[in-house]
Each structure stands twice: as structure tokens, then as C-alpha cells.
Amino acid sequence: MTDEPSGAVARAVLGAALGDAGLASYIRDFFADRLAREQTVVDRAVERGELPPESDTMLLMDLLAGAVSLRAVFRRMPPDEGFARRTVAAVLDGVRVSP
Fold first, then answer.
1. Above 90 in pLDDT, residue 44?
2. What is the DSSP code (8-state) at residue 99?
3. Is the whole-model pTM more than 0.70?
């Protein structure tokens, strides 16, 4: 999303989806599939007791994916090397089970 020309194309497609229901549906399905596959990691953390059983795993995934999207799409900044680690830590600090 931050490299050109692919970033410009991706941003244009996302923008076009605002006015095109078919394209919006395709994008929604694409990301729903990706996030569902990645969400199993968070679900397993709940099963292992690393997160509370009442954790809203979809919300956690939205927060994590949203941070990356915001950085890449709106700020047009590539996430630096520690971005993923810092983002996960920031999101989980409020819901992590105390040792």
C-alpha cells in the first residue's frame, strides 16, 4: 500500500469501492477471508488462557489491522521494523491476563 505504483492502484480501488456496491462486496469478502484466517491466532490465545475468555477477538483483529491500514493508506508510511510488535503490545496491554 505504500510502494508505487501498486499503492496508488490499491488506494484507487478502495476509493472506488465507496461508490460501487459490487466492488465493495468483493473487497469486504477478500478482507473478511484474510482476517478470519488470521483471527485463529487470537482465538488460540484465548483458548490457552493468554487472553480473557470474554475477549472480543474480532475487535482485537480490527484494531490490529486498522493500525496497519491507517498507517499505509492514510499516512502513506511503511510500517517500520518494530511497528507490528509495538502495535500488538499497545492493543493487548489492556486485555492481557496478568501472570
1. yes
2. -
3. no
